[in-house]
Amino acid sequence: MNTAQPTAINSSSPLHGVELGLNRSAGEAVIRRSELRATFALQGGRTVMTDRYYSAPLRFSRSFRPPGGGDELCVYTSDVSPGVLNGDHYRSDWQLGQNTHLMLSSTSATRLHPTPSAPSSVNHHFQLEQGAVLEYFPECVIPFKGSSSSLTTTFELGEQAVLAYADIWSAGRIHRGEAFQFKRYRSLTEIWQGKQLAVWDRFGLKPECDDPKPSAALMGYTHTAALWMIAPGLGAAQLESVQSTLPPDGRMLAGASVLATGGIGVRLLGMAAWELQEQCLRIWNSLRPTLLDKPSLTFRK
To answer: 151 has which bridge partners?
Structure first.
């Protein structure tokens, strides 16, 4: 449970939410922390945000209800800075109350800037209570040339909770010729169903030591995606529908399998983030009307 007390969103202090630490040996600022927290509850048959807090440069960009008058709430987050800079540490915490339904995305890519003196990190934590639904489709993660960064995303699912999460990654600013020019990148996704670990997905790459071109994990592609879908009753019977939605081998390469604890995981390789994003939505939308009794999901930005 998030026990933080409600906190004013805005502050007159320009350093509100920004913590600067000094590296005594190097004499350089190495730490800047930014936090974002939100709590959701079902009130009057609709999901509402009951508490929120953020510190610069993270913020809530907008929240609205999709057409149709359902119980869902759609929320976009944003980073008002150029991106995750040297020594930055971002953290977000999300608490979804019983039977709430949140559609979540970001307004721009997670841009991991060069880290000449201190690595950066991004951590997301989600807790879904019984019957809660989370559809999380953030923009792509892009490690810039010279960056050393990590991304950790953790989900704790209560009974009957539903999760659809698309994790999309680029090998750098491809259009600027920076493919695989970052120093190091690490990511970890954990999904817990009660006390049972349903997904433990770890990826790490250090291009100077690990040549990505012959890598069996990348096979010459520059972008990756993982789509994790967990819902009551979702398993082998729905796998055939998902597999029929996968793109043919070529510009994208994809495969799907049933998770040991129930649910479906999909892996995709590609050459463009937007293509993988569209494909992940297409796959989820092949199941969404049946699982949630709702129309296809779209994000308008």
So the answer is: 122, 187
Residues in a beta bridge with 74? 64, 103
Amino acid at 82: P
Residue partners of 67: CB distance under 8 A and separation at least 6: none
pLDDT digits 0-9 by tens, 212-251: 878 888 999 999 999 999 999 999 999 999 999 999 878 8
CB-based burial label for 125 (10 Å; 0-12, 13-18, 19+)? middle
Distance from C-alpha of 66 to C-alpha of 298, rounded to nearest angstrom? 9
CB neighbour burial string for 11-45, b if at least 16 within 10 angstroms, e if fewer: eeeeeebeeeeeeeeeeeebebebbbbbbbbbeee
| DSSP character at residue 237 | H
Residue-wise pLDDT for 37-78, tens only, equals 999 999 999 999 999 999 999 999 999 998 877 899 999 999
Gyration radius of the chain's alpha carbons: 19
CB atoms within 10 A of CB 176: 10
Residue 95 sits at φ, ψ, to 5 deg, of -120, 115
Tokens encoding 13: 């202090």
Q: Write down the H helix ranges in the chain.
A: 236-245, 273-285, 288-292
**For residue 8, how many other CB atoms are within 10 A of its CB?**
8
d(CA 198, CA 190): 8
**Distance, CA of 6 to CA of 3 (rounded, Å):** 9
Picking from 123, 185, 126, the residue whose alpha carbon sits closest to that of residue 152 is: 123
What is the separation of C-alpha 238 from the centre of its chain, rounded to a whole number of angstroms? 24
Q: Is the pTM of this model over 0.70?
A: yes
Return the structure tokens found at 154. Answer: 């953790």
Count how many residues are written for the chain.
Answer: 301
